[in-house]
Amino acid sequence: MAAPPAQTVLIVEDDALARTAEVFALHQAGYRVLAAGSLAESYQWLAEVKPDLVLVDIGLPDGSGWSLARQLVAGRVPVVILTSRSDLSNRLHGLMLGVQDYLTKPLGLADLVTSVAAVLRRAADGPPAAAP
Ligand code: CA
To answer: How high is the mean pLDDT of the chain?
Structure first.
């Protein structure tokens, strides 16, 4: 049986060391991985490909990852936030925006891969039920 085509994950992360580790972990898990270090780079990718999931850091050199996350959610692209901002107001912002998961650094790579896999599985099962 042929393997299904790899799902594509776009990582938007300005910390080069963290980005390299995240790319490695998701690639090892079997995903096609694209990486961007800024909002501008992420928009360059998004002009060419429609990823199955985007991992978004909030603090980016050329702006806030929230603006990117908002556009992706509006386009029904699953978003996972990965940030060092662990405060409640940021978490609530993500919840209200409709992101699929909100992860805080430092985060083990196994936990990252697990979250991505869970979100992609839910996305494959169909659109989520309307929020209560
Ligand atoms: Ca950052």
So the answer is: 93
Domains along the chain with CATH numbers: 8-125 (3.40.50.2300)
Q: What are the tens digits of pLDDT across the range 110-128?
A: 999 999 999 999 998 876 5
Residue with tokens 């805080």: 104
Distance 126 CA to ligand 1 centre (A): 31
Provide the whole-model pTM.
0.92
42 CA distance to ligand 1 middle (Å): 14
Q: Give distance in angstroms: CA of 82 to centre of ligand 1.
A: 9
Buried b (16+ CB within 10 A) or exposed e, 10-20: bbbbbeeebbe
